[in-house]
Amino acid sequence: MERLKVLLNREQIAKRVAELGEQVTRDFAGESVVLIGVLKGATIFLSDLAREIKLDATFDFIAVSSYGNSREPSGEVKLTKDVDHSMEGKNIILVEDILDTGVTLTYLKNLLLTRRPKAFKIAALLDKVSRRIQPIHGDYVGFEIPNEFVVGYGLDLAERFRNLPDICIVETDGESS
Ligand code: IMP
Ligand code: MG
């Protein structure tokens, strides 16, 4: 059995996402942006962030699998779905739910930079700074969080809990509370 404990509630998330949207709007004033969501975890963050960006914007999506069990990534990343459009000369914002070890975003950054965008930025709703093994940082980061496994607002545990409106820490039996 899992117990869920709210870490960030929907109001806190909405306020912070609005701030990130304003930042993007300012940084790219007068230009257009392509929001690339990393499936599936980033979809809810992307849909809220996009509506706070007051610029000409388009969406694209990319997907990776990370050969590991549901809680511990293996460090190996494989592309399972590429973007649909050319990124050459575009202002790309790669939108991800969480920056953890940094392996996934380092892989995607290197891949997308080969497509010769005009600008490349990373928006990550959550950042577990203490877990990083790759030297990568988010340009637009919602919240730095402790090393706890979280679900909700797009984030899953074995595909469950993505639809929770709040971000919650999952405690499974056998762990201290
Ligand atoms: P990284 O490659 O280690 O940075 O891992 C990033 C991916 O691991 C994210 O896109 C998530 O899918 C997953 N992940 C890392 N931490 C969590 C968490 O606390 N809850 C849910 N998924 C997580
Ligand atoms: Mg995931």
Q: How would you characterize the overall build of this protein?
A:
The protein has a single domain, classed as Rossmann fold. Helix content is 21%, strand content 34%. Strand 5 (91-99), helix 3 and strand 6 form a beta-alpha-beta unit. It is built from three helices and nine strands. The chain binds inosinic acid and magnesium ion.
Give a topology summary.
Elements: E1 2-8, H1 10-27, E2 32-39, H2 43-50, E3 56-65, E4 78-81, E5 91-99, H3 103-113, E6 119-127, E7 140-144, E8 150-151, E9 167-172
Parallel strand pairs: 2-3, 2-5, 5-6, 6-7
Antiparallel strand pairs: 1-9, 3-4, 8-9
Helix pairs in contact: 1-2
Bound molecules: inosinic acid and magnesium ion.
In a few lines, what is going on in this structure?
The chain is built from 3 helices and 9 strands. The chain is an alpha/beta fold and 177 residues long.
Strand coverage percent: 25-35%
CATH class: Alpha Beta
Which radius of gyration do the C-alpha atoms yield?
16 Å
The biggest beta sheet reads: 6 strands, mixed
